[in-house]
Amino acid sequence: MDGTDTAHPGGARPAPARRDAGASKAEIVRATRYLLARHAQSDITLKAIADRAGVSPPLILKYFGNKDALLAHTMDFETDVDALLDAPLEDLGRHMVRSVLTSQAGNGTDPILRIAFAPLHGAQGEILRANFRAQVTERLATRLTGPDTGLRAELAVAALLGLGVVYGLARGPYVRASEIEDIVHRYGPAVQGQLDRP
User: pLDDT at position 109, please?
Assistant: First the structure.
C-alpha cells in the first residue's frame, strides 16, 4: 500500500461539505432560540450555542460580534411572525396552530414560545416583552376588524402559547401522540373564534 486513495484520482479526497454563511447564521439563531426557551440568559454560553448549532464559538463572534448582540438578535420576532401570520384571516387560527406545532416538532421550539421565559432574562426580558407586544400581538390586531381587536389578538396568542407550553415544555403525552392535523382541526377553531369579528 502506497497510501494512494484509489477511489479518488491523484489520491485527493473531496473537502467535506460546508454550510454557507446564511445557513450557519440561521443555525446559530435557531440554536440560541432553542436554548433561550429552556434556560436563563445568564446560563447560556457561547460554547453551548456553538455545540447545538454545529459551529465553532469564534464563528458566532465573527457573525454576531458577541453573545449580547446575538441574544438581542434572537429577541426579535419579525421573521417568525411573517410565517406565523401568512394565511388568509378566515383560516389564520388553523394556520397559527399548525405553525406552532410543526415548529415544535421540527426544531424543538416555536416562533413565539420564548416569550414565556422573559422573566428569566433580566433586563433583556423587558426587551423581549416589548418586541413581542409590538411584533406579534399588535401586528395580529391590525389584521382584525370589529371591536376589541387588541384583546382578541392577545387572547388568540394566549391560546397558542398555552398549546406550545403543553406540547413543547410539559410534553403532554396525549397532545404529542396526536397527529398535528388532528390538533389543528380540534384547536384551530378555538383560536379562530378570537380572530373572527364578533
Answer: 66
pLDDT in tens, 45-55: 999 999 999 99
pTM of the full predicted structure?
0.73
List C-alpha distances in Å: 166 to 101, 104, 159, 160, 197. Answer: 11, 11, 11, 10, 28
User: 3-state SS of the chain: helix, strand, coil percent to 5?
Assistant: 75, 0, 25
With beta carbons less than 8 A apart as the criterion, state whether 57 and 47 touch: yes
Tell me which long-range contacts 75-78 makes (C-beta under 8 A, separation of at least 24).
Answer: 75/114, 75/124, 75/127, 75/128, 75/131, 76/131, 76/135, 77/111, 77/112, 77/131, 77/132, 77/135, 77/136, 78/135
| 13-63 tens-digit pLDDT | 343 345 688 888 888 988 888 887 777 778 889 999 999 999 999 999 999
CA 182 to chain centre: 22
Encode pLDDT of 123-139 as tens digits: 778 888 898 999 999 99
99 in Cβ contact with 83 (< 8 Å): yes
Q: Are 86 and 95 in contact (CB under 8 A)?
A: yes
